[in-house]
Amino acid sequence: MIYTSGSSGRPKGCVQTYAAMSAAWAAHPDRWPPAVRDLAGRLGRYLVFGSLTSQVMLEYGVLSLAAGGTLVTATPPGYPAAVTRHRATAGVITVGRLHQLVRDQQANPADLSSLRALMVSGSPLDPGRLRTALDVLGPVIFHGYGQTETGMIAMLTPAEMLADPPALTTVGRPPAAVGTSLRDGELYVRTPAQAHAYWNDPAETSGVFTGGWVRTRDLAEFDPQGRLRLVGRARDVIFVHAELVYAGAVERALATHPDVAEAYVVGRPDDETGEAVHAFVVPTAGSHPGVEALRALVPGAGTPTTITVIDQVPLTSAGKPDKSALRTPAANPPPYPVPRTAPQVEADGIGRPE
């Protein structure tokens, strides 16, 4: 049993059978899809942060051992110090920490010459920021997509991104062993190593594990080359005057502004609209995003009631953006709420997480 990170609620225990564990591709070189085969050759010294009870850490850890590599237990402060200290060749990094690493390398570069692979996971990565990461860190970024319930679903390699820039908007092609089905825009998958239930949670089990498929609750589409593109979360929605607003769509729109490095959107209860959209943006270095320019990117019900400029998004213990912290008004700077007619940009709203 492997637990989810709990970023969208409480952690859930994903129950796997021994048959599913044996069918997992990581320990079997003859089952490696092309993207994984490319990655495997770079895993000479794989950094392990935290516990191998994490699905992503375990999956890549097993792959490293099967490829003849070594697992290196890393301790804080993490990137980039762990790479230089251990001469690591590979590691897993969340999107929030990747942004921080890129900023650190731009401001005060560390010696990352040993690094050959950074596997990005945990949340969607804006194509522009992915391109910047490749420019700053080099051709070492592997953009993976998977879930604790399923293991790896797809992976995009540095070579694919550099050869075909439109690939940056995708997470790569699912390998042949992964079945995919789009149902009203929502992605369902079947993988050899998928879980089959949540421990002691029949209600959640019935909503996610259905007919041999796993409901990812991610909205997706395929590009003409058969690559998977994520377009939002089916559950990450806000109801404004009973109109459905997808947080992911608003985040992507805000992130297109050149002064915005990262964008996060949450909903909060509102006496007039039922729920209201609240946005948080991390500016690019030296930039000061203008509220009207940002609001113009999101017309209609998705227009944020407030836009807060933050130094860095709060992270969960798993390194994922902690939207629950953003939803709590007490964690945000005054004034709150702001006048309905004048959404406001607030400065330096949230300090750096521990």
Automatic annotation (TrEMBL):
Region (Disordered): 315-354
GO molecular function, one term: acid-thiol ligase activity
Family matches, as Pfam families: AMP-binding, AMP-binding_C
Domain AMP-binding enzyme C-terminal per the UniProt entry, residue ranges: 250-320
Domain AMP-dependent synthetase/ligase: 1-199
Ranges of compositional bias, category Pro residues: 331-340
Signal peptide segment: none
UniProt name for this protein: Uncharacterized protein
Organism of this sequence: Paractinoplanes toevensis
